[in-house]
Structures are given as C-alpha cells and as structure tokens.
Amino acid sequence: MLFVILCNVKGGTEKDRIQRRMTWKAPEGVQLKAEYWLANEFPNVVQIVETDNAQLMMNGIAEWDDFYNISIYPAITAEEGMRYIQEMMNK
Going by DSSP bridges, is the β-strand pair 31-37/68-75 parallel, antiparallel, or unpaired? Predict the structure, then answer.
C-alpha cells in the first residue's frame, strides 16, 4: 500500500535535521518511492512510501517526532484511480 507523508518542521536546527537524514534509511519492509524537500513553509518534506505494514509508519513517526509534525495518508496512483473509475463507469 502507498502512503504520502507530509512533514512540517517543529524543532531542531536545519543542520541537525540534515545530519540525521544523511544517515537515515527506510526500515525493513518500507520502500521509499520518492522524497521531495520543498522550499515553502508547509509542508517542508513530502515522502511517498510503500509498505504492507502500517505499524512501520507509526515507528517512523516516533523516530522523527522531535523534528517534525508528521501526517500520513493512504494513497493510490493516478493509474489505479483511473482504473477504478473506469470499472465503476462500466457497471
């Protein structure tokens, strides 16, 4: 399942956040599909991850909670969404 993770800075210095990110690796069972560092106020970081274990998402929040307010949303690809719409229209 895909998840979109939105992170808003709440603490630490930029240097601290960058140092941790440089050594961070996605936990086993989580595949980081994309990550974007945005130049706007909110959100500051957007990640797209894939996992079959939603509990791993909760572990990720705990790992970064000192630096970010984190929101996680289940998602589907545009292709999947279009396929679902097509199936609904054909019924």
Answer: unpaired
